[in-house]
Amino acid sequence: MTFFDVIFFIFDEIIVLKILSIFFLFSFFVVSAQQKLPFDSLKLKDAKELFADDYGNIYLYRNKDFSFTKYDSLGKQKGKLLFALPFRIQSVQNPLSIPTFSENAQELKLFDQNLNEIQKVNFREKFGQIKRVFAEDLQQIWLLDESTKRLIQYNFREEKTINAYPFDIDFETIIDFQVDQQKVYFLTSKNFTIYDFNAKKLTEIPINFGRRIVRENQNILIIGQKEVSVLENAQLNPIFKDENAQIVDKNTASYFVIKQNKLYLYPIQKTPRKNANSTE
Questions:
Q1: Measured in whole angstroms, how far is the alpha carbon of residue 90 from the centre of its chain?
Q2: Could you tell me the residue range of the domain that residue 24 belongs to?
Q3: Is the pTM above the cut of 0.90?
């Protein structure tokens, strides 16, 4: 081996060591960002929906018994509801007023931070068949009336209809919807679609993973079974994904994942966006 061969050999070894160091450092970074929360696996086993508020509380909805349970970050139960009929929980972004809607019962119920009922709005006497409800704030809600094919803006405090817009679309396939900035966002099992108030379709994006639409500050997010995506320039871009997840959710600080009947937390500030997949 010549002198130059020795030099090149040492140089190659240094490069390999640097690459390995970067790899192990990155691997440690990703794994250390994951935190397992102390939840009993039996509590997570039959969860149909997962929600997380900005105070670290976790909410689980079980379709098996129509139960909705609130836990703190240590897994201690803080409240529980048992519904007689299936209810859809809109969000827990405001834990002081949590909106739920039952298409079967045709009513909206609001619950406080202890899951005590604070308001009930019955739609049977005033409307036809309400398919979905979006509670915009503590006064106004938006209704999809399937019987009249209308989008209705309704002040439930004053029991007054503010506006009604004809929407001749298939309400039956709609999983979730929201209204923001003079636009209506619809989520179905196949598409994410944006309309204006004249029922003109502005954007349609094929999708097959959506569960809920979430508005977070100025962003529109789609929460799926295994991923979270953000609407950017008429496209849905994944910001978190875990192929092994049973279900995912997020608050403003972290992503939450149930997999193998265990609950994991991924702080957002430690999760590189360009590598949204978790590793375990």
A1: 9
A2: 1-33
A3: no
Long-range pairs for 177-182: beta carbons < 8 A, 24 or more residues apart = 177/132, 177/134, 177/142, 177/144, 177/213, 178/134, 178/213, 178/215, 178/220, 179/134, 179/136, 179/142, 179/151, 179/153, 180/215, 180/220
Please indicate, yes or no, whether residues 262 and 192 belong to a single structural domain of this protein: yes
80-111 burial by CB neighbour count: b if 16+ within 10 A, else e? Answer: ebebeeebbbbbbbebebbbbbbbebbbbbbb
**Residues 130, 46: one domain?**
yes
The CATH number of the domain holding residue 212 is 2.120.10.30
**CA neighbor of 231 nearest in space, from 257, 256, 203:** 203
Could you list the pLDDT tens digit for every one of the 280 residues in the chain?
Answer: 544 343 333 334 434 334 433 333 333 333 347 899 999 998 898 999 999 999 999 999 998 899 999 999 999 999 999 999 999 999 999 999 999 999 999 999 999 999 999 999 999 989 999 999 999 998 999 999 999 999 999 999 999 999 999 999 999 999 999 999 999 999 999 999 999 999 999 999 999 889 999 999 899 999 999 999 999 999 999 999 999 999 999 999 999 999 999 999 999 974 444 444 544 4
For residues 116 and 205, membership in a common domain is answered with: yes
Statement to judge: residues 18 and 137 lie in one domain: no
